[in-house]
Amino acid sequence: MKSDASTSAAPLKGLGGPLRSSEPARALPAVSPGAHLLEEAADLLVVHLDFQAALETCERAWQSLAEEPASGTVVEVKCSLCVVGIQALAEMDRWREVLSWVLQYYQVPEKLPPKVLELCILLYSKMKEPGAVLAVVDAWLQDPANQGLPEYGSLAELHLFRVLLPLGHLSEAEGLAEGSAAFSEEQREEVLQAIHTAKQQHTQEHLRQEHLSSQEHQKLSQQGSFSWKLMSLLRLLRQLWGSVTSHLLSQPFKKSLLAALILCLLVLRFDPATPSSLPLLYQLVQLFRRIQKATLSRLYPLALRD
């Protein structure tokens, strides 16, 4: 019997020492279904790399926790489920869904746990879209219930460096640094120095953009001037060509051409009766016909068209 009693009490060690007969046995707290599903989701995420199954397990865990009363353990489990879900969405390249997925459980940005909000800021700033969390973080920081949290200062600093400054919201960043009591004097000086540096960079970038715009405008003006000069040159060449054509088709020129042809025939003793001269005579007849047709088209354009 003694051995049986000692054996039955052995598993209860670690609960505050040996139990007396008058003390009731204290049972171990039961693991909630949500906590069990959290462990399963973490195992699917880290060990099995089954990100979709991990996300679905987190969603089932949230449904099971919806009916449980809010307590410290439940709040921690919900926050951990969001962390696992965020990592699963990011691994599946569905990071744009993170913010909406988290807000479907917490309803409003002011109720987001600091750890979840920190992950959202880091994720969207890493993906070069800090503007997606701008309104959410602003609402969280302005809520009086969050301003007393120990994580408030680190989140305000993270919001300033990862969201406001990259977006160029320098006045909002300066107002947050000067108006928030979460920053120490050393942190405030560091933040204001970073804002001053960002302002200088913003001014230099603005001047550089203006310079590039001025160069582009000047280049376009030069191209326009060149095009105008080219068109003027083409019009001048067209006028010269028209003048030359008119001169060639004039009556004195045709007479001069006929005289030169007769002179060539006389000088070269050309015999039109020989068979070898027929192709040359045919070409000369075609030439005179073209000259005659061109002349008539310039003198009587309407008549020829009808």
Walk me through this protein's architecture.
The chain has helices at residues 2-9, 33-46, 51-65, 72-91, 98-106, 114-126, 134-142, 152-167, 170-179, 185-248, 251-268, 278-299, 301-305. Mean pLDDT is 77; it is low at 1-28. It is 73% helix and 0% strand. The chain is mainly α and 306 residues long. Helix 2 packs parallel to helix 4. The protein contains 13 helices and no strands. The longest helix is centred in the last third of the chain and has 64 residues, at 185-248.
Please sum up the structure shown:
With 306 residues, this protein is mainly α.
- Count of extended strands: 0
Biggest sheet record = none
What is the molecular shape? elongated
Average pLDDT over all residues: 77
Strand content: under 5%
Number of helices: 13
SSE string, helices as H and strands as E: HHHHHHHHHHHHH
* Low-pLDDT segments: 1-28
The quaternary organization reads as single chain
- Rg computed from alpha carbons, rounded to a whole number of angstroms: 46 Å
Helicity, as a percent range: over 70%
Derived structural class: mainly alpha
- End-to-end Cα distance: 136 Å
